[in-house]
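The records we work with from here on pair a chain with its fold. Each token is a code from a learned vocabulary of local backbone shapes. A record is reproduced here so that you can trace the correspondence yourselves:

_____
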Amino acid sequence: MENFYRHGLLTEIGEELLSEFSVYKAKGIEIRLDVTEGRAELKSSGPLSLPCAPIIRYVNSMLQNEKAIEVKDDSVILTTWLPPIPSGPFRRALKAEIDILLRRKYVPQAVSINAFKRCSCSCTHCNMVQSPNEELSTDELKDFIDQVIGLGAISIGFAEGDPLLREDLVDLVRHVDKDKAIASVFTPGILLTEEKAVELKTAGLYAAIIGLRSPISGEHDTARGVKGAFEKATISMKNAVKAGLYVSMHTHANPGLIESGKLEGLYDLASQLGVHELTVWEGVPTWSYMNNERMMLNDDHRKQILDMYRRVNSTPEGPRMFSMTFFESPKLFGCMAGRRWLNLVDSGDLTPCTYMPISFGNIKEEGVKDIWDRIRKFPEFRCKRSCLMLDPEFRSKYIKKIAKSETLPIHIEKSD
């Protein structure tokens, strides 16, 4: 007997069921998941329930006010960006948030590996590191994965360039301990065949995040620098859905995308393709165009995104929407960089996020923990605020003075 929630549509088979599962248990607190008639809610008990109430309240707000990707009798898939509830990775996420509340201790929960030099595209706003280094080896990447999971990572994302060009990608995905972290692949979708999607799913891949710059094929092809990139990306999304992966269509929203109504067009396309989620990240000046602020949104653009986010996620039909503008607002998590996010580039340097071109150390020279501890001492990461790379004061202090001749990322000492 199963209750199944897919894109907001509840189908009941058999009699009404009520299920309750322990999600997290530690000294002073137990958190349980209650699933009734396709609706899910976290409940807590114990003396630490009160100080941990903000975490429970936030997750329940999402569970009760937003459609999930999937709700079963024993689990909930809320978004492609978070682990299943319950699961080993989700328990680790709860522990990390409790440690933040009680001990002010942060761990790199989300880790992106932007260490792949090869790409199937030539994007107009590329974020790849153009360094003379060789790609990190399989063993180096596996050791890095082990180290960050040891520190508390719950999400490992294989990203730029195109990780599908790595012959060892399936092996790397398989290496991620699925009892502790989910694995995702970020790709422009040029190379994700049916066979490769199935192979990655079998290796334990959780989600495929596939980028689209525009709902208009010619515009997307131009942005990617590849003829036929739009058609290949949409086919890749279908292949990933068919393979049983959770799939998000991903875009970076610049002013033109919002003002032209093309963001709505992307959502309509996501609905047609049957993907699970549209992810909207704010446009951030990339390493190749570090001071191009024309791609940054204003408050009116952000209001339009948030209005769309609330409307989409309160409507039963269609895929859900994930918004950086909502998720990284000071009222929720704030900027993830250097607080919950860690990024690896091809040189072995570790930066606080994908977008910040400042290295705090290199994994070829020291352990990840030492580098993370150095990041945590950086004063800019001590308070909750919106995306630092979109903050004029931060950009003026650390980014605008970077000379065009500099090889990125620059070391933190050079940014002082």
